[in-house]
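Q: Convert this sequence to structure tokens.
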Amino acid sequence: MNQKNKLNNFLPLKIAVSSVLGFFTLYIIFGLDGWSSRASNENAIGEVSRWCERVSDGFMREPSNTLGNLGFVFVGIYMFYKLSQDATSEKGITMFGSSSIAILYAGASTFLGPGSMAMHGTNTEFGSWLDNLSMIMYIIILWIYNLKKLIGFSSKTYLIIYGILVSWYAYDSWFLEGGFGVGISLFELSIGLWIATEIVVKFPNIYGRFSSGISVLLIQQLFGNPVVESFQNFNENWEMLFYFVPALIPNIKKTSDIKYTPWFFLGFISFFGALLIWETGVPDHPWCNPDSWLQAHMIWHLLCSAATYSFFKLYRTEKYKV
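A:
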């Protein structure tokens, strides 16, 4: 491989670093001029924010919760570095079976940092929108990839589906009322679809099909969202039916093998452990100390960044069958 090709393979890393530096530059420039009006669901300066930390009048409205997002940035840049190393190797980038999807994963993981920093740092409507968009851009990567393996569509089709969903969500959540007009929380739905598809991918048999949707409901129950109440209010929770759709995919063939231990379990524990901690980072929780630098929501960010890293390591173990 000649020197020019090696430099081109490091281009995504350079773009990622430049983008992060560009975000921080813009953040400082706009911050010097003062942030615009706070979002309708945010509290005034001096009051306790929705995420426990007291709202400051400085560059960062919630300093601890904002800086906790640096974990995503560091982890994401490291992903780009490793992928750049892969690109210069003899095998090239094999993660996800597609260099485009691998770079997309690293990009979405990195963007979680600036997205959430925009929300906690500015408390503006735009910051909140960017935060939600960054979460969607990450989480849908996982279940669409599982569908790709289960159904067998191409990487090009994957990217088209991903692009349509992200664009639709971005437009709907900014210009319309969100929920795609039917009250769907794409983030919550995506978590369920990820779990359901992951089970079917791992166990492409009758047992995996049967347990996939049920497992989502069991996890929902464990995390304080009673399944019985969801069924009693079915009109508001009808999207639960989507959790059972992966079980209906016909003629599933296992196209790859992946080593789940230890990275899947570390990622799973990190994410769902973060969810438990997230519930303590609210003003009415007895553990809330709004003037402390150690905030539960900051820990939520750090654990979630650890989860993105764990899943990155997980997918790098995947071996594709010829």
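The two ends are 25 Å apart (CA to CA).
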